[in-house]
Known about the structure:
30% strand, 2,3-Dihydroxybiphenyl 1,2-Dioxygenase, domain 1, alpha+beta
Amino acid sequence: SGLLSRLQTSAPTVRTLSSSKSFSQNIPNCLWKLGRLNHVAIAVPDLEKAQSLYKDVLGAQVSETVALPEHGVYTVFVELGNTKLELLHPLGEKSPIASFLQKNKTGGMHHICIEVDDIKAAMAELKKKKIRILSEEPKIGAHGKPVIFLHPKDCHGVLVELEQA
């Protein structure tokens, strides 16, 4: 009874938040909603080696290579269950990935992609909030859906892609 009574009396007490405000009250009302993480994009200098790493070494399901000339990239998607990785490789001399790889020879994280339920409403509100968008209109992305990119200097150093869900 001595050990049991000591365990019962030394049990931690559970405390609740003392604030009467709920967390949701701190979130501003928007005409659009941020959704789930769609993918993390990684620029790679050798697409075949990167595909092999994820497919043959790590055992992931890897898509075929798709050329997206309007974005200047080749893309490959790696399925992860809860999200995807997008492997990016330059397509053409004006590719933004080519300039990224000139600065980052071994590759690296290029951007994150988050889904939104209304990309046009998101664009309008973000412009009002002085967040720079890197195109005047959405472009069709790798999933065949409208996408925009937000300036990394306005997003704490991260290039953020928003994709219509």
